[in-house]
Request: fold
Amino acid sequence: MLEWIEKCWKHIVVEPSVLILDSLSVHKMAEIADVLACTGTSVLYVPGGCTGVAQPLDVGVMSPVEQHIRRLNSSRSVGRPKQVTPAYRRREIFERAMEGLRFISADTVKNSFHKAGPFMPYGPPNNAAGSPIDWSRDSVVDYTEIVEEVAV
Reply:
């Protein structure tokens, strides 16, 4: 997680920002929170069992990709190399994931947010033409209250 923050997030984050993470223990480490705070990022944790509501891409996009990878794994040819190195296996998984992502359309992504509910905004944060969301500070939704209500 620290490597991802340093190599990716740090270079794209626009202060102030909110990062919504699941409740995985590594995400809740004090060191992670400190590094994110230094980038001007606040963190919201999704309570267990609320992924489908608070992380629509996890359900609408990643789930079909994972299913695709499982299908490919179950139909592997018998003739694959007997000695599979970790590097070979990582490359194979990466290629299957990228192949699965090719099947995900922009409509699939939008529908993931629509199915999650009206409180999940999507679109550019600069109110570009066609964006259905008013991204001004006054219109930002407090997800913590919504997620707590759904979790109850």
